[in-house]
Structures are given as structure tokens and as C-alpha cells.
Amino acid sequence: METKLKILFLCTGNSCRSQMAEGWCRHLKGDTIDAFSAGIETHGLNPNAVRAMKEAGVDISKHRSKHIDELKNIKFDYVITVCGHANEKCPIFPGKTRVIHAGFDDPPALAKFAKTEEEALGHYRRVRDEIRDFAAKIPDNLLDMQLKTEGGFSYPPNGTEGGLSSPPIEGTRGLENPRSVA
Length: 182
What we know:
CATH superfamily: Response regulator
Strand content: 15-25%
Shape: globular
Largest sheet: 4 strands, parallel
Order of helices and strands: EHEHEHEEHHHEEE
Number of strands: 8
Helix content: 25-40%
């Protein structure tokens, strides 16, 4: 039996984007990926994220906002930061964990300026669909992103929220993410 990849989706408050990413990975890739989500803080589960995911047939209503410290004993293959703040504040992970940045727009921040509830939900739906497309390509896109980090690649390629992925450094094991230590 092949071991599932352990992937942590990390954002600031573990309320929206990382929850959506965990939900999509469990829904689309549950046979090959053991998905988790956490935040560098906890902000509670965003009800509009739950609603947008439910519309797409994925129930995340039983999820809860978790602090990264709750998962410190899990050896992840990948940590994917889904917002710029989490990417900047991402802690160091031991072993062979690879940290990759895949930034997505922040629906709650965008929804603040919406004139109607429907307009606000449109931001959640768009980001939900972008995260779905990203999750559907895992693990192949992670390998590609890992190879391209030397050139400052980040996801999504159109650069909506993205940012510079952690540039690899030359180390004893070749190119390494500076937040991945042996």
C-alpha cells in the first residue's frame, strides 16, 4: 500500500482559504493525500467559506479553526502557504518537509467592499474555484512549483495574491527551502 502524502495548508487564521484547500483535497484527492489545515492564529470558521464550499458539494461545516501548534507532531511532506502573511511568518519545519507558497486572494477582505451579499459571495466562489483547480493538480503542480522556486515562481501564475516562494538555497541535499531543515 502506498503512503499518502501529508499536506498542510497554512494561512493566517485558518478560517477560509486553508479550510477550502483542505476540503478540496479531501474531496478530490482523499485516496492519495492526507490533507490538514491550520493557521498561525485562529479566527474561527468563516460561514461564507462553508456556504461557498457547500454550494460546490463539499461540506466543511465540521472543520474547526486550528493553530499550527496543534499539528506540530505530524511529519508533513508539504506545507503550502495560501496567503502572504502565512508565507512570511511560516515556521521552520523539520526533516524533508517542503514549504511552497500558493497565494490566493482573501475573500473576507474583498467582501468588505461588496454592495450586496451576492457580490460578497462571488469573491468566495471565485477563490473557491481557484483553490479547487489548484488542488485538482496536486501533486504534479507541487513538483513543478518546487523546481521553479529558484526563479521566484509562485501560484497562481497570474499573480493575484501570490508572492515570492521561498527561494531554494544550496545545501548538503542540493536545493532546499530555507524553512525545511534536516
